Amino acid sequence: MTNPEKLASLQKLAEKTDLNDRALNDFLAEKAKREGGRKLPYAGVSTFLKAPQKTIDDKPDIGLFGVPFDLAVTNRPGTRFGPQQVRQLSVMAAGPKNHATGIVPAMLLDYADCGDVPFESVYDLDAATKEIEAFYHKVIDQNIMPLSVGGDHSISYPILKAVGRDRPVCLIHIDAHADTGGSFNGSRFHHGGPFRNAALAGVIDPEKTIQIGIRGRAEPHWDFSYDSGMRVIHIEEFYEMGIDAVIAEARDLVGDLPTYISFDVDSIDPAFTPGTGTPEVGGFIPREVQAMIRGFQGLNLVGADVVEVSPPYDQSGNTALVASTMLWELLCILAHSLHSRKE
Ligand SMILES: [Mn+2]
Questions:
Q1: Which CATH number is associated with domain 47-342?
Q2: 268 Cα–ligand 1 center, Å
Q3: Which of the 8 DSSP states describes residue 155?
Q4: 67 alpha carbon to ligand 1 midpoint, in Å?
Q5: What distance in angstroms lies between residue 263's CA and the mean position of ligand 1's atoms?
Q6: Is 207 helix (H, G, I), strand (E, B) or coil?
Q7: Residue 255 carries which DSSP code?
Q8: In this predicted model, what pLDDT tens digit does every residue of 248-301 receive, in sequence order?
Q9: Ligand 1 centre and the CA of 277: distance in Å?
Q10: Is 320 left (phi over 0), alpha (psi -120 to 50) or beta?
């Protein structure tokens, strides 16, 4: 048995209820007081990362938006259910504090779950794409930084049309697929083409675009990436270079220019994220994507998205949990970036 003196001192330690992180302690105490106590994580309405529910008229600094949309898939559907599933699982991924970087987004600024993009044209891909764009113009009009949850990857194009409307933005794109394909079956708005569309619309700079994790049988469709000057890092090159060199190259490419980050869950190996429309074996482990996102801290960020969670193929819920974790990491660096600019 431990000697009585040591036991007594351990018991004394256990009486302490305050956190060692004083600032966080006081912030959480104040929050609990304001909200009338700690909320049960498994009760009530689920929101992205347990964020308060607001509307765009409340003008939070960062708005979390769901885009429940899967009209643009080339194969398996289901991502229209992504936002709701991520809301549920993100309860397990939300801070308050990022253990690796120390960022507490809620202490830096105001963020909120602003609900889902409202759709009227759910049977018309082109019209729906225009509706997404019109909604995000309102978001940008309110000076809200968007952090979106899809939905299939086609949604990044209309989002970028709004985010990049005043000047083309740089793009850091983590995906198994370069998503710069041309028309398939008579449409160019499918989820394999958002970044060709965005480059052609002048809202991203292809020479300031880096695509990381690319692999698989769709490779012949990505000529536009190479022809337009995008930097493509296949999964093999990622491991040859090492993660630090990849992060450094991305940072060097975008510098301090406005940068958007798009994260597709199929960049991660389907062992971890099977619940997606076009899984590609041989991908990242989740920790590598976490480390990459943390590596982008300090960039001049203007928004981000997490796409392609398809709950019908996500039997364990783990895809949505991984997506939620990356959503949290993205929120941390977006909050840090916006806060730094406001200071
Ligand atoms: Mn994609």
A1: 3.40.800.10
A2: 11
A3: G
A4: 15
A5: 8
A6: strand
A7: T
A8: 999 999 999 999 999 999 999 999 999 999 999 999 999 999 999 999 999 999
A9: 10
A10: alpha
Q: Measure the CA–CA gap between 223 and 219, rounded to whole angstroms.
A: 8
Residue 261, helix vs strand vs coil: strand
Cβ(74)–Cβ(123) under 8 Å? no
> How is residue 229 annotated by DSSP?
T
**What letter represents residue 156's amino acid?**
S
Q: Which two tokens stand for residue 182?
A: 């041309």
Q: Rounded to the nearest whole angstrom, what is the distance from the C-alpha of residue 201 to the centroid of ligand 1? A: 18
Q: What is the side-by-side strand order in the sheet with 204-214?
A: 111-116, 62-67, 145-150, 301-307, 259-264, 169-174, 204-214, 231-234
Beta strands 204-214 and 145-150, pairing class = unpaired
- Return d(Cα 132, Cα 170) in angstroms, integer: 21
pLDDT digits (tens, 9 = 90+) for 238-260: 999 999 999 999 999 999 999 99
Span from the CA of 262 to the centroid of ligand 1 (angstroms) = 8
- Label each residue of 237-251 as H, E or C: HHHHHCHHHHHHHHH
- Residue limits of CATH 3.40.800.10 in the chain: 47-342
Summarize the confidence of residues 81-109 as an average pLDDT.
96
CA 175 to ligand 1 centroid distance, Å: 5
Secondary structure element (H or E) that encloses residue 324, with its range:
helix 318-342
